């Protein structure tokens, strides 16, 4: 079986690349998908629908346009990895985890112990909590085992 893993969350570090590199090094049958990770492009996703006078309505339109991609890719994935960094609040990642939970889609959270209390409900619905990309690769290697 070929697996599809959706990589959700924090966009300010190379965690996606580290997971992809680890999976490639092991030759695992896994493909990845992700949201738009270019912050400026994501913020401007709704601009094609016309300009707005306030940041709220610009963000509102862009979030809807981005949701076309996000919802579709989460629905199509076999499992999601949801990364929470320590520098920014990833409300979008929490929403993605909730969407996965609502769909019955398995997901793994990836975050440091320091934010564990804030994410207790998100972690409670996850099927795994990893603290490093290496742990995610190990977990994916186990579940993708043929």
Question: Can you characterise this structure?
Answer:
The chain has 146 residues and is α/β, with parallel strands linked by helices. The chain has a domain at 3-37 and 77-143: Response regulator (Rossmann fold, 3-Layer(aba) Sandwich). It has 6 helices and 5 strands. Strands 2-1-3-4-5 form a 5-stranded parallel β-sheet, sandwiched between helices. β4, α5 (120-125) and β5 (128-130) form a beta-alpha-beta unit. α1 (15-26) packs across α6. The radius of gyration is 16 Å and the shape is globular. The model has no long low-confidence stretch (mean pLDDT 96).
Keyphrases for this structure?
47% helix, 5 strands, 6 helices, 146 residues, five-stranded parallel β-sheet, alpha/beta, Rossmann fold, globular
Number of strand elements: 5
Distance between the termini: 7 Å
Structural class: alpha/beta
Overall residue-averaged pLDDT value = 96
Radius of gyration over C-alpha positions, nearest whole angstrom: 16 Å
Low-confidence stretches: none
Q: What percent of residues adopt helix (DSSP H or I)?
A: 40-55%
The CATH architecture classification of the domain at 3-37 and 77-143 is 3-Layer(aba) Sandwich
Query: CATH H level of the domain at 3-37 and 77-143: which superfamily?
Result: Response regulator
Order of strands across the main sheet: 2-1-3-4-5
Major pleated sheet: 5 strands, parallel
Order of helices and strands: EHEHHEHEHEH
Total number of helices: 6
In the CATH scheme, what's the topology name of the domain at 3-37 and 77-143?
Rossmann fold
């Amino acid at each position: 079986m070929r697996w599809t893993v959706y990589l959700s969350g924090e966009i300010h570090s190379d965690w996606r690349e580290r997971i992809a590199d680890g999976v490639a090094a092991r030759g695992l049958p896994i493909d990845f998908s992700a949201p738009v990770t270019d912050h400026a492009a994501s913020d401007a996703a709704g601009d094609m629908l016309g300009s707005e006078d306030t940041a709220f309505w610009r963000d509102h339109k862009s979030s809807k346009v981005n949701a076309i991609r996000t919802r579709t890719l989460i629905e199509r994935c076999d499992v999601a990895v949801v990364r929470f960094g320590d520098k920014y609040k990833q409300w979008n990642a929490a929403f993605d985890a909730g969407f996965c939970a609502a769909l019955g889609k398995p997901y793994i959270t990836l975050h440091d112990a320091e934010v564990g209390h804030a994410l207790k409900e998100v972690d409670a619905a996850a099927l795994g909590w990893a603290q490093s990309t290496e742990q995610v690769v190990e977990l994916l290697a186990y579940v993708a085992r043929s």
